[in-house]
Design goal:
- The structure holds 2 protein chains of 2 kinds.
- In chain A, 41% of the residues lie in helices and 7% in strands.
- Chain A is mostly helical.
- Chain A has 2 domains: 155 residues, no CATH class; 116 residues, no CATH class.
- In chain A, α2 packs parallel to α6.
- The radius of gyration of chain A is 37 Å and the shape is elongated.
- Chain B is α+β, with helices and mostly antiparallel strands.
- Chain B has one domain.
- Helices cover 16% and strands 39% of the residues of chain B.
- Classes of the chains: A mainly alpha, B alpha+beta.
- Chains A and B meet through β5, β7 and β8 of A and β2 and β3 of B.
- β8 of chain A pairs parallel with β2 of chain B, so a sheet runs across the interface.
């Protein structure tokens, strides 16, 4: 399990200034370059010019068509790097929705800059942040401007090729590579089994970044503490760019854990508050003290000293039990302030609820319900 | 009849629950366990109701070793498959229609795995 939250190490060779500039323009994540609607055209032109400056080929019609054809909702390569090209993605359009689902590119790492032009989230002031692919598949009021801006920089033919490819249905996947694909059986409605190979939507993997990103932000000094949460982060690929330029090497999931086990006292308190029995008084000296009290009570002689001793012993037991009950009730009302507490059982029950030696329980019950003990309870104002 | 299998221990249980969460065995894994046992118990395949009660879950720290393949003249690991496994202690309530042989259930449970 890999749970470190540090950032990926910087690449050892320092990227050239031009490449850095390109990185600042092309990404699958929002770059923070907020544009006015009219500035979109100049942004696409800037991307094109930066590509030329960086001595990279400006993508043409064929490149955009390739990106469009290799974009889908489910990337088979996320399960197995061995998936063959042409059989490595699906485009599933769920019925009953008025929006086309989001697509993710899955093609050669060399085509990553082209994919990033198509899938870069364009932050337009006063509008939802959407990529060029989104504007093609789910047009809104701004879409004509964005598409025109793209066509102005990369050519009308490129736009048409991209549009055709993104909107076309995908040929179905007919075969899977032998490894890494579990086969499971599900009940078929109407009896029998259904053999399936589960494949998760690429969205579940890639979009999780948006959900979790704020939990992994660096804690700034004097800033409110960053919430952290429990996560499972695993390296799943050494070369994620071969699967899709939109994913990172790590996959993140929510980490579910078992609730911590309460210690005995807390568990008893919890049960009492929720309708269970009153916690036990686990003081080991109580048993012998009751036995000593019973011995003194059962002996035939009596004088002032013996009577004083009996009173003293009974009072000590009553006082101890009372302190215990008060402690528990105070703790319960502190820990569960919203709960209405039931009254505690009688002092004799509190003392009796423990393990006794053979015949000890009967004897203890006899003396604790006897006349002398009841008198002492009365004297203490408890009955 | 409802039967309870107390304090089962299972190792290498799959703890990847679904696309979004991991850390505990998936409830569906127990339905699958019951379905796999159903023919042995003479029940319809999906007719057994299951209620697992987890007592303890230990998540393994390790990963499944990556499969190796020849790569540039060397035998090197290929892509690492995502996984999370662990050992669990669990009691399971089985609701099996028209069945009351607890010893048969015990036998059917031997050597099964909780895959999920």
């Amino acid at each position: 399990m890999d749970e470190d939250t540090t950032q990926a190490p910087e690449p050892s060779d320092k990227p050239s200034e031009k490449a850095l500039k390109l990185e600042g323009l092309l990404s699958h994540k929002p770059l923070g370059r907020v544009l006015a609607l009219e500035e979109v055209a100049s942004e696409f032109a800037l991307i094109r010019d930066t590509l030329i400056e960086a001595r990279k080929r400006v993508p043409d019609e064929a490149d955009f068509a390739a990106v469009g054809q290799a974009s889908g909702t489910h990337l088979v390569k996320l399960n197995s790097a061995r998936a063959e090209v042409g059989q490595h993605l699906l485009k599933i359009e769920p019925a009953g929705r008025n929006r086309a689902p989001e697509l993710f590119p899955s093609l050669d790492a060399k085509k990553a800059p082209v994919a990033k032009i198509v899938f870069r989230p364009l932050e337009i002031r006063g509008a939802q942040t959407r990529s060029l692919a989104d504007h093609i598949r789910n047009p809104d009021d701004n879409s004509p401007v964005v598409l025109k801006a793209f066509a102005a920089s990369f050519g009308q033919e490129s736009l048409e090729a991209l549009r055709t490819a993104l909107l076309a249905p995908m040929p179905p996947v007919t075969q899977l590579p032998a490894a890494e694909f579990p086969i499971i059986f599900l009940p078929r409605p109407g009896g029998g089994d259904l053999q399936v190979t589960p494949l998760s939507p690429a969205e579940a993997n890639i979009k999780f970044w948006e959900v979790t990103e704020r939990y992994f932000r660096k804690q700034e000094k004097d800033a409110p503490p960053v919430a952290r949460g429990k996560w499972l982060r695993q390296h799943v690929s050494g070369k994620p760019q071969n699967i899709s330029s939109a994913i990172g090497p790590r996959r993140t999931r929510f980490l579910a854990t078992m609730p911590t086990i309460l210690d005995q006292r807390s568990a008893e308190l919890h049960r009492f508050v929720h309708g269970g029995s009153f916690p036990r008084w686990r003081d080991p000296s109580v048993g012998p003290a009751v036995e000593a009290y019973a011995n003194l009570l059962d002996q035939p002689h009596s004088n002032a000293d013996i009577r004083a001793g009996l009173d003293r012993r009974a009072d000590a037991l009553i006082e101890g039990a009372k302190v215990f009950v008060d402690e528990i009730l105070a703790e319960a009302s502190h820990d569960f302030p919203d709960k209405e507490l039931r009254p505690a059982p009688g002092i004799d029950t509190i003392i009796l609820r423990r393990s006794w030696p053979k015949d000890g329980a009967d004897r203890a019950r006899r003396v604790l319900t006897g006349e002398h003990f009841r008198d002492r309870l009365k004297a203490a104002g408890l009955s | 009849m409802i039967l309870i299998a107390l304090n089962l221990r299972a190792s290498r249980v799959n703890l990847l629950m679904n696309d979004f969460a991991a850390g505990l065995p998936s409830p569906l894994a127990f339905l699958g366990l019951a379905a796999a046992m159903a023919p042995e118990l003479g029940a319809e395949r999906w007719s057994i109701g299951v209620l697992p009660i987890l007592h303890h879950v230990d998540v393994s720290e390790g990963r499944t070793k990556a499969e190796a393949a020849p790569k540039k003249g060397r035998f090197a690991p290929v892509e690492i498959v995502e996984d999370l496994t662990g050992s669990i202690s669990v009691s399971v309530l089985f609701d099996i229609p028209d069945f009351d042989h607890d010893f048969k259930l015990k036998e059917a449970l031997l050597g099964r795995r909780i895959g999920g």
